[in-house]
Amino acid sequence: MPAQPHRQKPAARKGPAASRFILWGAGVAALGFLLLLGLNKGLFRKDQGAFPGMNVLLFTLDTTRADHIGCYGDPDARTPNIDRLAAEGVRFSNATAQAPLTLPSHSSIFTGTYPFMHGVRDNGGFYLGPEEITLAELMKQKGRATGAFVGAFVLDSRWGLNQGFDHYFDNFDFAKYKKISLDSVQREGGEVVKAFFEWFQSNGDRPFFSWIHFYDPHTPYEPPEPYKSEHSGRPWGLYDGEIAYVDSLVGKVLESLREKGVLDKTIIVVAADHGESLGEHGESAHAFFIYDATVSVPLILKVPSSKWKAKVIDAQVENVDIMPTLLDLLGIAVPKEVQGRSLVPLLVGSRAGADRMAYSESYYPRYHYGWSELKSLRTARYQYIQAPRPELYDIVSDPGERANIFRSNSSQAERFIREMKRIEERSPVPGGGSEAPRKPDDDTLAKLRALGYVGGFTSSAKLNRSSGLADPKDKIHLYNKLKQAEGASADREYDDALRMIGEVVAEDPGIMEARQVRGNIYMELDRPQDALEECRAALEIDPEYEAAIFTMAQAYRKLGKPDEAAAGFRRLIQMDPKDPKPYLNLGEISIDARDFDGAVSHLEKAVAADPEHSAVAHNLLGSAYLEKKMLEPAEREIRTSLEMRPQMPDAHYNLGLLYEEKGDLRRAAEEYRKEIEIHPAAYPAYFNLGLLCAKTGDRQGEIENFKEAIEANPKFARAYLFLAKAYLDRNENFDEAIRLALKGLELEPEAGSAPLGHYVLADIYNRLGRVAEYRAELEKGKALQARIEKR
Q1: pLDDT of 693 above 70
Q2: Average pLDDT for residues 354-381, to the nearest whole number?
Q3: DSSP string covering 331-389, please?
């Protein structure tokens, strides 16, 4: 393969993945192309394809079952735009996704390879490596403008799918969310479409490849009006409402392209990454099982040719076929690594699809719970699922996959067993398995867990086991209960969550994710010692369980044991030097210890580990430089942080400190007010504004800001003490001043500011003529001040 103009890629994957192969016979795509030339002369020009200059627009619909779309047989579906595409193009009635998870499935779509080849086996902890050749990169090589617009954090550019895209619209800023949950982190489809239109304005005048991803059908099912009202009151109606809303957006995009005269120059593909169980086989959503409910997906292709209109292909196809089909249509050479097969021969009437099989897998049960993975092979008639208790279904006579005929139809069973064995033997990882996942940083992990995707992963030792693993069919009730517990935890219903997790652990003590979820709940409840115990229990099962090590380090830090916390974060760095989060935490620990040189060292490593998502590290670097009185680099780092994340917490507060250091009190006050405007609970900004008011003689402003600081944080001791002093300075409200000073001392009796409380009380008592109390408080203040100075 020639070197790509935008960057050089390795010729092949390093290590075990170098042994790539084409699953169902080398040369199939080439054979299909030759058949096409013979069967439909005049349509293709040799080495150019049928539509060499066409645009390509790929829609992927997240979590969308084929049988909930009108053209796939749902009479109640309101999907007129997708149905119209099918009527004007080609509908594939038996299309299968490679995984019931968003990132692995999209990785297969964009590389044309199976998960065991591209290496992305789950959401989170896996990255599409730079050695992989993507559809976008090949489109870019041919001079097309490339733009991607995604609706979910799980497809954020950090996971590697941005390869080849000139513009990748993700920009998920979690700082603005008070609560990270499904409804707050998913981007509504309307916003995705708006971003596409903005990009198209500047790029629609030349051939383009664009990918639009809609996340809306994913839980929670909350379609906008009128789709919510129109679909309420029937089973899974709101799910169908989300699909109807997405259909309207597809129509909006197509109509706009039609108005601009572009649609007739554009190849359109509509596909789904996976489906949704909707309660079938005991699973409410997706990820766990690989029955048709979660891997049978819509696939529609529309090309500007009347020859392929209202065509239905019943042969078995799969999502890995999308890439080679588009390349074939455009006359672009298909890389030898691609395992999918071009669908063009099927389009022109070839019967070459009779032998087609589709491969799917889910490693989710194994990575998260230590149970067996699931793998499947599907034809247009049969579905085989490899599991501790294997399954075989005749999906023509039994579309609900209820009657397992594995024992009664031994000839078909043996056929699938042989084929699966052949696949596993040719996989770059022995047995078709997987190496342990690479762990994301904790911030990313928390966001993915909120999406219902990621808990902890089992260790490599468990992943290498080939026998004795539980069948997921026997564990679905535990999986459901743990997910219910996680949902209850997200809603702050901690008692219910802890009760359900206790029931899960009682039945299967080896589920580390249950321990981890319980530990996280204890951290939310400010019970770090209990969280520590949960982490220890998890680490007894697997000493390399990184999520537990991280939570343990956080618990130690909350318990005021920075050395133990630092040891945990250093251990994580040994395990994964590319993870920025341990460096970030070590930087914070160093700042707390006033080791600012150490803080700078750690935080610079955090930035280097993840330069594209390092806004927090830049802000902390600015804070460290500020403490070192290095004002120029401090301002540079803080402003870099704000450029990356305009609503970065504490950034404007740090700029306020910086301008105070420069003596520019007006600009300092402006920055504190900006911090409060963005983050109304920013009590330190209120407090510092109060101090500035005191310096400028604004006594009323001083009192009001100290009050706001207390309201924002009722445990902020210094605000009580300084508000008491403000009343003292105004020689008024002594009773309130006494109450405030006593409250401040109660909250932090040994703090550095505590002597002020005693001196305020002494002064008030002296003015009130309460001599004994005056002397007592004065002595307390002097004694405490002496102890503090000796520290």
Answers
A1: yes
A2: 91
A3: TPPPPTT--S--SHHHHTT--TTTT--EEEEE-HHHHHHS---EEEEE-SSEEEEESSS
